[in-house]
């Protein structure tokens, strides 16, 4: 089949998210200027540069108690920092608990019973004992076409790695099985890896 998104797809559910998958999940921790902490997962997330290391995530909806966006973006606008926590398979249920449309005053760390830590290079909370956390300073927020679509870019200023995720000097994803987002309400996890050499290597 072929369809133009502007004309609809005539399917029971939108296939776009299922086509662009699997996607890593950025579990974004922020703190508002008022000191209120927030934690929410975003599946439009990825690394975008090596030197300096940079990441991005996109928020695509809004809440009535924020100015056309969600708590994460609103907090980053105020403070200029955020932390990206890696989601392991074992944390799938508590991650999902933090995805709800909770009120601004809700601390999702407390709501889901998540142990909270402090970042080293920025004033921001982080998920303790997660496989890795990237501390980030905002570089830019880009408003994308469409209502409430914002891409947030940040430079990584600090990296936390859980000790048992390092095997022979490498960050080994098979030690914790990263959770990935598919389409619809579907998720998957990485349990095995293989390597390929580029031509000429």
TrEMBL record:
Q: What class of enzyme is it?
A: oxidoreductase
Q: Which residues form the Flavin reductase like domain?
A: 20-173
* Matches recorded under PANTHER family: BLR2425 PROTEIN, FLAVIN REDUCTASE LIKE DOMAIN-CONTAINING PROTEIN
Can you name this protein? Flavin reductase family protein
Enzyme Commission code(s) on record: 1.5.1.-
Question: Per its UniProt record, what InterPro entries does this chain match?
Answer: Flavin_Rdtase-like_dom, Split_barrel_FMN-bd
Question: What keyword terms does UniProt attach to this protein?
Answer: Oxidoreductase
Pfam (any one): Flavin_Reduct
Q: Which species is listed as the source?
A: Yoonia algicola
* GO MF annotation terms: FMN binding; oxidoreductase activity, acting on the CH-NH group of donors, NAD or NADP as acceptor
